[in-house]
Amino acid sequence: MSDDSKKDTFREKLLEKQSEAKVVRKIVLTVFIVLLIVFSGVIGGGYLYIKSSLQPIDPNDQTAIDVTIPIGSSVSSISKILEESGIIKDDRVFKYYIKFKNESGFQAGDYQLAKSMTITDIISTLKKGKVMDEAVFQITIPEGRQLTEIASIIANNTPYTEKEVLATLTDKAFIDSMKAKYPDLLTDDIYQENIKYALEGYLFPATYPYYTEKPTLEEVLEPMVQKMSEVVAKYIPQLQEKNMSVHRLVTMASLIEEEATEKADREKISSVFYNRMEIKMPLQTDPTVLYALGEHKDRVLYADLEVDSPYNTYQNRGLPPGPIANAGEVSFVAALNPEETDFLYFLATKQGDVIFTKTLDEHNKEKNKHITNQ
């Protein structure tokens, strides 16, 4: 074989090897990318699963469940008992959470726990035996109540006067202490100019048990702020995606709560508010006028619409400075997930049905049909 032939053969083999090497590199790169995607998915899925497992089973279910922790129970056995009782989602996550937090000192005994309890509440309960006895009393805060109404409810169920409750609720030292404990919920927005009450809308509507005859007012009020923090925490990722503040969410949810009836489609009401803000149309919602007036009325008069207040959404565009009442979780969901509609108007009939319309003419026709002529 000539030297030229040898060189040609060498070149062909070299090119063949280079080609094979390229194929191998492509295969390795492809496998690496696939493994990276799978690994990322596993990590992401694992994170979401653990996060979900650390949330309450059902934030709205406060039904007492009898749970017995035998003497000498290990962390593993306690975790299994809690999962089997439906108090936690995953015993392994609970067990490793306890180890990670270096928690100890759990007490044996008969407990009454609930699916609405947070991990921290459960741990605290098992360490202190807080609910081994029945609650001395309970306070139920309904949805849609204003701060002054909540103060009245608390006064009716405790030895404190309404004035004392309201004084604590408006005390800057107390508010700042809550702000320090729950920074993701209570931001500097609650101290904006024209805010009527800093904690308006931040006391979650629920039933709260108390285990001493006369807890301090701080001990009465903090669980309401804590519960709101736990509820809102679930929606922080959505808020970040929408570049929406917690204060804006709580404010919008309060408007939806005050306008909604039992039959109302809150996502549609939400869409009306967002549609109006998008075209810079005043929200014109009566509950804000009543809040500005500081009174409750069955019917808002035309003269009432002239009240000079930053909360009056007939006189001011956009959201009011802050919430006008406490909203339930369904209103938070609606505030975050408005339905896609072209509606700009709605009205509630005396039967509680809510009628949505796109134009003022349509709205007035429905108003004449269901409101004016009745």
From TrEMBL:
* Catalyses which reaction(s): a peptidoglycan chain = a peptidoglycan chain with N-acetyl-1,6-anhydromuramyl-[peptide] at the reducing end + a peptidoglycan chain with N-acetylglucosamine at the non-reducing end
Bilayer topology annotation: Single-pass membrane protein
Task: Report the subcellular localization.
Answer: Cell membrane
Q: Does the keyword Cell membrane apply?
A: yes
In its keyword annotation, does this UniProt entry include Lyase?
yes
CDD domains the record matches? MltG_like (cd08010)
Q: Which residues cross the membrane?
A: 27-50
Q: What InterPro entries does the record point to?
A: MLTG-like (IPR003770)
Site feature (Important for catalytic activity) residues = E259
What is its EC class?
lyase
Which superkingdom is the protein from? Bacteria
* Enzyme Commission designation: 4.2.2.29
Task: Give the protein family.
Answer: Belongs to the transglycosylase MltG family.
What the protein does comes down to: Functions as a peptidoglycan terminase that cleaves nascent peptidoglycan strands endolytically to terminate their elongation.
NCBIfam families, from UniProt?
Answer: endolytic transglycosylase MltG
Q: What is this protein called?
A: Endolytic murein transglycosylase
Q: Which gene encodes it?
A: mltG
